[in-house]
Amino acid sequence: MNRMSFFVPLAIFMVIIGVGLVGFQLGDRAVLPSPLVGKPFPSFSAPRLDQDDVLVDQSVLLGRPLLVNVWATWCPTCKAEHEFLETLKEREGLEIVGIVYKDDPAAAQRWLDLYGDPYSFNLQDRDGRLGVELGVYGAPESFLLDAAGNIVYKRVGDVNERVWAEEMAPRLEKMRLAQMEATGS
Amino acid sequence: MSRIRLCVLLWCVALMMSPVLLQAASTVEVHEFSDPTLESRYYGLIDELRCPKCQNTNLAGSDAPIAMDLRATVYRLLVEERQTDAQIREFLVARYGDFVLYDPPFNAGTAVLWLLPLLALLIGIWRIRRITQRRPAIVLTDEESARLNAIAPRDPR
Fold this sequence. Notes:
- The complex is a heterodimer of chains A (185) and B (157).
- Chain A has 185 residues and is α/β, with parallel strands linked by helices.
- Chain A has helices at 2-5, 8-24, 76-92, 105-115, 129-133, 161-184; strands spanning 45-47, 55-57, 66-71, 95-101, 121-125, 141-145, 151-156.
- In chain A, a hairpin with a 5-residue loop joins strand 6 (141-145) and strand 7.
- The radius of gyration of chain A is 21 Å and the shape is elongated.
- Chain B has two domains: 1-103, Orthogonal Bundle (Helicase, Ruva Protein, domain 3), CATH 1.10.8.640; 105-157, no CATH class.
- Helices cover 64% and strands 0% of the residues of chain B.
- In chain B, helix 2 packs antiparallel against helix 3 (65-80).
- At the A-B interface, helix 5 of A face helix 3 and helix 4 of B.
């Protein structure tokens, strides 16, 4: 027994190292798990970017899988992400809906004219209230939605090739297969 | 000479005041409360709720834009919609997760966090009991005490 207790400090040390190794591989602790994943996209009413007087609600997001991308012209990461969104739209045929988050609509429109427009349409969230409904705490944030309007995946930060390949593409593939089965039968 | 002293004194006062002034400037928005209980509930809530953008700052203490928005949200729910504190907490947890409470709930993901101190305590108690039980009082025979006395004579005091 005495010889066993000789190894106790070593065992404790190994446990601490183990916790550290696992802990540091858990990923970015600044990314909070969203309680909205698996739930329907929250109901809202927001003006379109191109038509200030047209209010739309969550029903415009139904019927096909799509990506809702929360962005702003004041957000440098959104600029970094922009090109990849265009790639997604063209290469994957994924529909992307934008939410212009706490930004000036004129500035947002200028940005789209200047850098290209991967969005089918954009909504305005000038005071950030839709953002609060979505649990947004920065930009960019993106939500992958299924055809029934449920949030399947949330990304905090930029959508890039790695995030697409590891997290989003498999989920989209699954949704498209499910949809094909549903329409086929 | 005295003018230099005065100057130094004023600088010292200014330096001592600066944290106070900076702090006063950090919370920019001013809310109106018709009722002092609403006001104290508001300050209680923004004090206890955590800013999702910042790892360890409450809503009251953060300059992040989202903290400002969430303070406005708390104000709206509290004053305009007359929700209870529990409803307001629930509203934020439903959108931002348990992170906004400094109080992680007990579930599969947090079980280790909650149970580890208890486990450590139990191990500690077990060790202490073993150590205290393992040592019976040592009783020397007359011969042994004579030998001990020969090797190390008892202190005459």
